[in-house]
Each structure stands twice: as C-alpha cells, then as structure tokens.
Amino acid sequence: MKAIYKRELSSYFNSMIGWVFIAVSTVFIGIYFMVYNLFSGKPYFSDALSATLFVFMLTIPLLTMRSMAEERRTRTDQLLLSAPVSIPAVILGKYFALLTVFLIPTALSCLCPLIIKLNGTAFLRADYATIFAFFLLGALEIAIGLLISSLTESQILAAVGTFCALLLLFLWDGLVHYLPTSRRGSLIGLLLLLALLCYLLAALSSNRKLAWGAGAAGAAAAAAFYLKVPAKFENLLPNVLGKFSPLGAFDAFASDHVFDLRGLLLYLSLTVLMLFLTDQVVQKRRWN
Amino acid sequence: MIEVKNLVKRYGNHCAVDHLSFTVEDGQIFGFLGPNGAGKSTTMNMITGCLAATEGDVVIEGHNILEEPEAARRCVGYLPELPPLYDDMTVREYLSFAAELKKIPKAERENQIGRVVALTHLEDAAGRLIRNLSKGYRQRVGLAQAILGFPRIIILDEPTVGLDPKQVVEIREMVRSLAREHTVLISSHILSEIREICDHVLIIRKGKFVACDTPEHLEELLSANNQTELLVRGTREETERILASVEGLRPASFADGGGDAVRVALSADRDVRESLFFAFAKAGTPLLELRPRMASLEDVFLNLTDDDDQVAAGAAALLQREAAPACAAPADEAAREETPEPGAENPEPDGEAVPEKKEGADDESHL
Known about the structure:
heterodimer
C-alpha cells in the first residue's frame, strides 16, 4: 500500500494535475475569503468555504478521473494485480494519495480564520469544525470519483460521470422536495429503491437467488408495514432520503454552527461504502 | 512448479480457455505455443491471478492462486503482453516502485535493482523517462520488472514481439541464462523461438489442449510415419525392381536426381532403412543418400493449429495414434538386440546382416 501511495502521490506532482488542483482550489478559496470575509466583513470563514463547494464539484472530478481509469487503459493494472498486494491495499493507497493532495488546500485554508482573528472577532471553533466537515465531505466526493473512475477506461467519461454524481449530491435537497408525498407514492418509491438495492446485490454477489430472495422479503415487509400502519407512509420518502442529504450535514456546521456528529458519520460511512464498491468493481472485473 | 488443473475461462458464450491442464516442473523452460487468439494470454493472466478462472485451479509452488494469492504471487514474476509501465517515471524510479510492490526488503532493493539493470543491459537508460524509451527498451524494462526479486517462476508473455532481430537474440540469451536458476514459462506464436529455447512445449488451439511434449519428441511423433528419401545411382527400372524385394513399402514416387541418379520418396509402415540398405547392397546398386524425412515442428504446429477444424483434428489424431508405437519402439529395438536369432520377418537381407552385426557387437565387448 505504501509503495502505491508514494507512486500515486509523486505522479500527481510529476504531472500538472496535482499542482493545478491545489492552485485552483487555493485561489478560489482565497477569492471567496476576500469577498465574503475581508470586504463584506462577515466573521465566519465557513460562509466563504460553503460558497467554494461548487468549485470542488468541478475540480475533484479532474483530480480523480485518472486514478483507476488510466491504469486500465495502459494495462498497468496487471502489474498491481500480479504483485503480492491485495486489491483493497491498492485502492486505499490510491485513495490516501488523493486525500493527501486534497489535504493541502484544506490545510492552507486553515490560515483564513486566523487572518480574521487578526482583524477582529473570529469564531475559531466553529470555523475549524467546518473545515473538518469540509475535508470529510471532500473525502466522500473523492471516494465517489474513485469509484466512477474504476468503472471506465476513459478519463473523460470518469470526469463527466463524477461531475454528474457530485451535481446530484448538490441538488439532493432540492430534488427531495419533488418526491411524491402521498402514501402510495412513498410505497412505490420505496419498492423502486428496494429494486435498485437488489440489483446491486445481484451484481455484487453474482447470486440471483439471494437477490430475488432479499427483494421478495423486503417487498413483503414493506407491504405488510403499509397495510398495518399506512399513516407512517405519509411523506416517508422525502423524510428518509432527506436524512441522507450530504450537504445538509455540512450546512449544519457552516450555517448553524452545530457539531453534527450524525452528519460526519454519514460522510464516513458513505466513503467506506464507495471504497468497498470500488474494491468490488475491481474484483468483479477479474471474474468476468 | 506450476500446476494447472482443468482451467476454464468463459466470456459469456465464448470459451477462451477450455479445460486446460498441464504441469510445469521446476527448472524447465516451458513454451506455450498457439496462434493468435488461442488463449495464451488469458491462461497466463489466470496463472498470475490477474484474471479469475471460471473453473479449475492454478497451484503455484503449492499455493492456490485464489486461496493464497499473495503467497502464490510472491513466487511469480510476470511480464504481460504489453509491459505494464508508468510513462511518467524514470526506469530507476519504476524499478524501485516495483521492488517495493514486490515487498523486497529495503536493504536488498538497491542491490537487486542493480543486478536486474545489468542483466537487461539497461544501464544507459536507467535515468531516462519511460515515456521516451523505444519499444525494445520498454520491453527490457518490463522484463527487468518481471525478474526483479528473482522469483522462482518467471512468466513472459510474448517477450520478443516487436523487437528487432538483435534484441530478440539478446532476450533469448537472457531467458536461457535465467533458466539456470528459475522456472520460465514463455508464450509465443513464433515457433522458431520456442524451439530454440524451450525444453518443453505446450501447444494450444482455440483454448484447448493439443499437445505437450519436448520439441524433439513432437517432431519424432509426427515423423513416425516413416517417410524415407533415397538417392540412388542407377535407372528407375532397376530401383523399382530392388524396392519390390523389400516388404512393407507403399508405392513410391520417383524424380530425377540429376546425372544418372534417381530420387525416390517412399513411405512404409515400419522403419525400413536397414532393409533398404541391405537390399541395395545386395543388388550392388549404390545408395548415395538415405534419410528419414522428419516433419519439422513448424509443420506439426501449422497442422495442429490450422483454422480448419478437420485439418487440426487430423493432425492431433496422428499424434495420438503415433504416440503409442513411438513409445513402444525403443523397447522393441532393445528386445531385438537381445534375441539371439533376430528378424524372422525379413529373412533375405537380415540373414546376411546377422553375422556382421554380431561381429560388431563382439568387437565392442572385447574392447
């Protein structure tokens, strides 16, 4: 894992991509910091930071696009697959290298609250907590990028795919409002979600019986629940999916200045899920 | 030692490798021969664990590649068809990355990289970016990576493709020198290469096992049809007359041998060289040439891997059919030498042959 980590990290800095990512991120954090905090006089750095989120929506796909896709295109994955290292170690090595690159602009942004402090009142604890949440959100976005990069050989497809996925995360809260709120609509939505999960299960385990079984059991449970306490299904879908809002957790830090532990756990668990899926994608390819 | 048992790889309906089984013993240079698309690379990828088999097992030095992948891969150095190189690294950086990846202890790394660089003659290129290297150098870097750590088994997938003749010879030399301490599994669709360096050949066709033997033995098997060529000084009629006195010949074909000689190509159901010699000697007709016509490995290979299923099946059947008599032949000969009164089958020429032969044998025993 260490060998891969070192190689990946040096490859980001041997090529332009690492430097460009750091430069663009730092410049835009700086611009928002100047506008929001220095010129508009807002005391919270978190305001500036939440405004930069969409910049990362554009730059993170560029950073992650080559991580897995390029290995496949140049067939260097055969070196890694035939070496005495496990696939999770390969993926973690790559992931930590990406995280290290992302950590640099994040670390630089840690200076901003101190600059505010020099000029007046600063809310250091709130700001640093926000930076921490920002880093974890970025870590999740990178894991999504890594997963999508492992799905394709084309860097462009990986970048576009990651961008779309991240855009979906940003629009999540807005889109949740458009979900059906009626009881029946919730049931149908729930069943659709169940079908999606079962499809994923089937793809991962290559065991159709298991997937059908799980699907049937889930559907039966949902139907039974629906017949027993239909009132619970009112607004169920927006409520459930709203809880998974990735930006909601960050907003709790940035706007409400609350330490949202549940949100952090959401980030961490989703990150682990993405890395697990990446591992599965790579493993699965060997069996195809 | 590599044991491949009943290996199958299916892509949807297409069967790339079909129930392939073979064993590579320690210290062998094992050639893996087949036309393009026969499933060589797929098999090698399965042996190294880059691909998982649909069915069957690969056991490397006692470690199953799927159950103990790390232990198994530790024994293997692999050069895939396309050398897995990172363009943005220098050769030295790449090799030290590979060394770390292969978990070579830090203290030994420098030393090992030095040895490998010397072996593959990469000294001049060590500081260059892989991006800027020519095809031959890239191949050598790939090879250096494969032998790094000096694993017990080295697997090379078409290592000489796209190289110029001088580089091909160099790589061959290298493989031969490696074989002193390592087991080498090498694939190729070029026959002369395999023939030159391998001491065992496995031929596959459309993913299926066709033949596995030493190159010499394979040739022998297919030439066991006992085709013989003669160059006789004399007329055609005379030759025909003498040939008629030898039993077991099939109709021969004649050609002008230049001057007053006749060239004869004939086949028989057994080894008739001795009978021919005595028949001509008795008639006082000089035999200028007598040689068995060997099918070259090239012919064997071309027939065995012919695109036409029938041709290939025919060649394979020949191999199967001839395998038994060919194995039995040495035993027969030995038995014949021991029997005191040999050759009741061919009384005429053998009658004269016996005393001569016995004398020779006696002479030897006196010495």
